[in-house]
Amino acid sequence: MKPAFFDIDTQIDFLFPAGALYVPGAEHLIPALQRLNQYAASQNIPLVSSTCSHAEDDPEFRDWSPHCVAGTVGQLKPCQTLLEKRALIGVGSDDHSIEGAQQIIFEKSQLDITSSPNFRSLVSRLAADRYVVYGVVTEYCVRFAALALLATGKPVSLVTDAIQTLSQEASERTIREFTARGGRLTTVAEIYSPS
């Protein structure tokens, strides 16, 4: 099977205590994120790393504190999660050149990854047989990505030790919804030794 990995919103503003919209405990995910991303590179698995990219007066800031403003340090991914050969699909970008890229940085300006007009065309180009999803935050951006990928009819696995939540109750609800729709739960160790 030809998998594709989706690394969701693992950015400085979310992962680190000094970040603008810090997810408590998220910094502990970094070794797992690094392992998964490096594994994808070593196996020639396409890696899509979604990133929030907001304008300074983004409408989303009515509901959330300002975060991941384009061009700020907080909008970046930690260097440990980056691969050498990267391609960028920017918000509203018409440049979808991903050939030769180990990692596709996929910018979005809303919580839901499918709000980007580039999402469906990217998924089609990946032509994956299954998807592996991880990142932050479980009940928001990770949920949107996992459910959208399930809607393709392909198998989707959620890496439970490479996600972080703002609310344990909301996370549990999301995981129940995901598995009820046919999603599978996995771990970093299982990714390294698939059955």
Task: Give a verbal description of the structure.
The protein is an alpha/beta fold and 195 residues long. It has one domain: Isochorismatase-like (Rossmann fold). It contains 6 helices and 7 strands, in the order E-H-H-E-E-E-H-E-H-E-H-E-H. The chain has helices at residues 12-15, 30-42, 119-126, 138-150, 168-180, 188-192; strands at residues 3-8, 47-52, 86-89, 103-108, 130-136, 156-164, 184-186. The protein has a 7-stranded parallel sheet, sandwiched between helices. Helix 4 links the parallel strand 5 (130-136) and strand 6. Helix 4 runs parallel beside helix 5. The longest helix is centred in the N-terminal third of the chain and has 13 residues, at 30-42.
Concise summary:
This protein has 195 residues and is α/β, with parallel strands linked by helices.
Write the layout of secondary structure elements.
Elements (H helix, E strand, L loop, with lengths): L2 E6 L3 H4 L14 H13 L4 E6 L33 E4 L13 E6 L10 H8 L3 E7 L1 H13 L5 E9 L3 H13 L3 E3 L1 H5 L3
Parallel strand pairs: 1-2, 1-5, 2-4, 3-4, 5-6, 6-7
Helix pairs in contact: 4-5
